[in-house]
Amino acid sequence: MSSGGLSALELFAGIGGFSVATEGFTDIVGAIDMSSHTLSVLRCNFPETPVIQRNVETFDAAQFEAMGAKLWWMSPPCQPYTVRGLQKDLEDHRARAFLHLVECIQEVRPWAVAMENVKGYWDSQARQLLARTLVDLGYEIYEEVVCPTELGIPAKRERYYLVAVSDGLAQGKVKQDVLYEGRQHELVEYLDDEDAIKEDLYISQSTQDKFAHAMRIFDRDERGVELNCFTSAYGKTFRYSGAYVRERDGRVRYFSSEELLRLLHFPEGYRCPDELTRKQRYRYIGNSLSIVSMKFVLSRVPGLEALGDQFF
What is the pTM of this model? Predict the structure, then answer.
């Protein structure tokens, strides 16, 4: 965390994706989440960040305003909008926190607001409400669905993003610029050394035979791949939850939690507390954010333009 950076509030903080994406450019005045496990990850890596385990609905507008954040970042629950859920939108009880924050934004009017959610949020009543509210308050807004594969990363994670600034957006890059200035990354760049792979990651042949219809397996040295999105269900189910690696010796395995963090472009050495199980790590990483996509989007915020030059 830097001194003198843009003051920011990280709502639904998870394992700290916003803190990672904006490190050196923001001062996090509060990282709020209900999960003690995800906040334990954030504490491990950002020990100086004020971490608050609390439901955002229990804060009133005056309490948010007292924190003094110019930028509010939020990644509210996605279940009301996901294709695998009931898609109850604003009628879902998990949308209450989002509705409360919209009311608080109207009262506090922070200088900037930014958020992330699943692609399905784009067609939701929630998005219509938020966008209409921000425009009525005089914010200039930027919205886009971004996938890391459009930015040269070999793993899908298509998400809706919004940035709103009260006195105008900064000029950001377009996706084509990023690819032209960077390069296409290959799967092998994100993998652990073969001699460091733990035995418990390997999947038995009988399990492979049983779930072959649901498993997407990629060879370690395969080029030009696009891994399917890793979800919080990775390690619990083989269906639509992620991908698997075939090593050079022919054995098939799960990705390690360290590899999943690399694919999201968390910095090398970003760690989870030792007490978290592998399935817990998969769950919390699966609910996290693509750092590359966030840098691309947040470069629209005045003062954070340089994030657009830090994708890799």
Answer: 0.94
